[in-house]
Amino acid sequence: LTGRHFPKRPKHLLIVEAKFDGEQLATDPVEHTDQPEFATELAWELDRKALHQHRLQRTPIKLQCCVLDPVSSSKDNIGYIVLDLRAAQEKKQAPKWYPLLSNKYTKFKSEIQVGVVLETDSKALVDGFKAKEAPPREGKASALLSGLDPKSIVPVLNEEEGCHQIGPVEYCRDYFVLSVTIVFATKLEQLVPTTMKLPERQPEFFFYYSLLGNDVTNEPFTDLINPSFEPERASVRIRSTVDVLQVYLCAQSKLQIHLCCGDQSLGSTEIPLSGLLKKGTEEIDQHPVAIEGAFVLFPPNRAKQKLPQLPLDMAPTVGVSVILQRESLSAQLVIPLNAPSGPNQPQEKVLSDVKGKTEGLQQRSQNAPSQVNHSSSTQDEATESEVESLKFEKGMKVKKKADNGPVAASQPIPEGASSSSEPSAQKIVIPAASHHFCFSIDLRSIRGLEVGFPVNCILRYDLFLLILFLLITVSLFFIRKNMEVFLPQSYCAFDFATIPHQLQDTFLRLPLLVELWHKDKTAEDLLLGVARLRLSNVLASEKTRFLGSNGDQCWRQTYNETVSVTAAQGSGSRIADLSYAITLEDHGLCVGAGQQRHVPHTQPHCAPEKCPEPRETLEYKAALELEMWKEMQEDIFENQLKEKEMVHMQVLAEEWKKREREREALVKKKVAEYTVLEEQLQKTLRDLDKRERQLFSAESELQTVKKDLQAEHERKLQELQDSVRRAREECAHQVELERSKIKQLEEDKLRLQQQV
């Protein structure tokens, strides 16, 4: 009917191609606007037997949306829609909006309004196209090759060429690639029996199938309600011919895909492979042939368990794509194994090992740097050990905002860096012409997240100041899509001493890389993206003058910017925006630069008349500094406890919500099952009531017939008795008449005798 959420592309046309059972129809080209109007009806004619066969085999209707360029006459696919033939009913239904799958317009959620209906055609079929019969059943293609038994064709692994040989070696010399991809799954919680209790720890679920004797499993997942897994393509190389492959696929059993938990199968579906080569060599020579669609998963032993049939919208389904193509075509389509797999590209598995087992050569996102474990251990030592924190204060001061987070540890400070005074004796050499600098970084907010799942974020960056190396981590925070989060405890300031041109050279040469990580409690941390901060921008900003703590004239330069966080995998597209501010303060020349400063162990001697005030003594200052340090450490410890409490409460809340969703799904499933059982019970009760009424009516009718028969019997008996009585009376009367006649004749005889 129409579309929505399309980008406007002048001088381009849109067309929708519909493919069903090998027959392809297309709409008229329309303008490529944001709401294209197709308004086209595409129809196929077929009898009820073929329709029933297609429904049993779940033949899909695939709609391919293409863009036409009238100037270059090129046609590009931008997405597709797969329709389930079983959803079509004879009664008219309201059209639905279907999103484009594998949409190339990634920034647009393009949708097409489609209506599917079955119409009974009372007119005679006219000459024209007609949908062909369903794919041939097992053994029907055996007539293609005389003398070749389909059951004798078995795949044999060829170790040298890394392929499976199907058919005679001297006859089968063409190379093919058979690929199976599990794309998505829905309503999987319907496969869990209602008697199964929810485990304390969620088990792992995965899909399993066997491809030419190779066992294949996809990446495990734990959430049945919203299953999330990367599409994985399993491919095998085949050496054969189209005719032999057609015989082999027709003779083989269907491809079975199981949803498993451990070694137990929760449900399975079957995909017939005989429909791949139903049109012979013409189609596969031009383009790959495929079977794609959403297939319903059925629990094992449904008949034995006497499970009710679920409605179509509640049935668990799995989206599968099976593609067969010549190797020359597959070389242009298969993703290289050494290339990183993007979010929309299925991971690749090549199945051609010697033992017939699955060898998953797939790319995983394991880009975590080697310093992660080291940095985390260093952070723990810095936060838990007072000695390490004191050493850090000797080397470099890292100042945070009010809620001081974990203090980052650093290596011992070398020559050329500033040092705070201590009661112990030290010798520190500061180069001449060195300035006292204070450099601060404030990561303010992150927004515009373009990731398809909620993220528990942490930000990390490696700060390389001269020859000092620091790993700074921003506290954990939670962010969703289209949400802006102001970062807590993200301000850090660094005091150091160096020569100005050396600092300028370092800022121009080394950018600051801020990494965005997703922290998962059940898996390894995942690097989502990296933002590049050019520190040299602060050197070009305007200088402002201010007075330091000792009254000296100082200069400050500040730079604010929002940069894009690019994806760490794939094409490097933008996944978020990071706002930050950096400040550089120049406090002038360091006091005592180029000299050695010696602080003795002993206290300075002063004359009685010039004795300093108690508050000015080194002991008082050291005690005051120690008390302030203790108070600061207490605040840090309390803030850390609050943060940990918040994190734990958030984890508990998420776990509680997850368990609630699981229980709600199970309750919905039980309600659906009970509703189906209630409908069946109501139907049985109606049938029993109907049968009871029929029996009562038949019994009443039987009683009436019995009474009628009894009355008829009595009437007949009475009539018979009356007939007998009348017959007897008539017989007696006849006897009397005969007797009277005999008497009369005797009298006549006597009279005549007397006369004679």
From TrEMBL:
Residues 337-421 are annotated as: Disordered. GO terms for cellular component: centrosome. Residues 1-98 form the C2 domain. The chain crosses the membrane at residues 458-479. Residues 671-755 form a coiled coil. Residues 360-380 have a biased composition (Polar residues). It comes from the Eukaryota. It is found in: Cytoplasm, Cytoskeleton, Microtubule organizing center, Centrosome. PANTHER family: CENTROSOMAL PROTEIN OF 120 KDA. This is Centrosomal protein of 120 kDa. The lineage of its organism: Eukaryota, Metazoa, Chordata, Craniata, Vertebrata. The gene is Cep120.
